[in-house]
Amino acid sequence: MKRLLCIALSCAFAARAIEPPPPPSPEPSREVAPPPPAPEPSHEVEPPAAREAPQWTRRVHLLGSDDRVELLRRVPGMKDVVVCRTPCGVPVGFDPSDQFVLGGREILESAPFTLKLSEEDATLHVSPGTQGSRIVGGVLAVGGGAVAFGGAITLAVSAAFGNVFCDGDPQCAAGNADRRSTALFVTAGGLVIGVLGAILLWTGGRPTSFTSEP
Predict the structure, then answer these.
(1) Which of 30-44, 82-96, 130-144 shows the lowest mean pLDDT across its residues?
(2) What is the pTM of this model?
(3) Rounded to a whole number, what is the largest CA-CA distance in the chain?
């Protein structure tokens, strides 16, 4: 009887030993919290304004005797943009309000103008403006001013100290009088030349002009 009991206990322990272990308990999930949203800017950022595409396109021919003449587009707040240089024939995109000028190196610019709305080519016959008289006027103004200044200094010194060292010598006094007369003539001549130069500098020069076809 004891032997049967031992065999039964042994079988029970063996059956319990071969049972699979219970599955492990699931670990709690670790969810990562999303990062907080970036703070909104304190003011609205305005996108940069883009210039709309030109509404019209017209081929422009630039003809003239001076290859320095350029067709320039006026851009508010910026430097003029060169479209083409004489001689040329290029398609130009523009809006009816766009302004152009004709100018170039050492050339007086024309008055601003706009291109007409047309499908035909525009031919501009250019007569370039000159700065020759302005250059001459500037030289005369500077040179005349310098001569007048030098003559005035000589006249003032001669009038103030010319007879100090003559000791009553009439020949010395006569020489000083001649020097004063010469200085006065030089001063007056310099003033005249300077004034003429200033007038040429102010009013001289002829702006660039053109005729358009059609």
Answers:
(1) 30-44
(2) 0.48
(3) 177
The more confidently predicted of residues 129 and 150 is: 150
> Which residues are paired to 126 by β-bridges?
64, 210
- Closest by Cα among 89, 80, 84, 82 to 58: 89
Could you give the CA distance from residue 57 to residue 93 in angstroms, rounded to a whole number?
A: 4
The backbone region for 168, taken as left when phi is positive above 0, alpha when psi lies in -120 to 50, beta otherwise, is left
Q: How far apart are CA 120 and CA 113, in angstroms?
A: 18
Residue 193, phi then psi, degrees to nearest 5: -60, -45
Distance CA 49, CA 194 (A): 51
Asked if 66 and 127 count as a contact pair (C-beta separation under 8 A), the reply is: no
pLDDT at 171: 79
Question: Per the structure block, which two tokens stand in for 112?
Answer: 């601003």
**What are φ and ψ of residue 94, in 5° steps?**
-160, 160
The neighbouring-strand residues paired with 100 are: 73, 113
Which SS3 state, helix, strand or coil, does residue 85 take?
strand
Describe the crossing of helices 132-161 and 170-203 by its angle, rounded to 10 degrees: 160
d(CA 63, CA 88): 7
Contact 186, 154 (CB under 8 A): yes
